[in-house]
Write a structure and sequence with these properties.
The chain has two helices and no strands. It is mostly helical and 52 residues long. The model has no long low-confidence stretch (mean pLDDT 79).
Length: 52
């Protein structure tokens, strides 16, 4: 399970975030969601550790 964002994934997220500023929705396919979910969970857990 990959727990860090590679440059391609990071760029994709930045583009999704940017497009969602100007459109009602940001679209992701199932493969992208499956790839990014573990990274998002790891990121959130790391933030929780830092805040404690």
């Amino acid at each position: 399970m990959k727990e860090t964002l590679d440059e391609k994934s990071r760029q994709s997220l930045i583009e999704k975030r940017h497009s969602s500023d100007y459109e009602a929705f940001a679209y992701c396919d199932k493969a992208m969601v499956n790839e990014l979910t573990p990274m998002a969970i790891a990121f959130i857990e790391r933030i929780k550790e830092i805040l404690e």
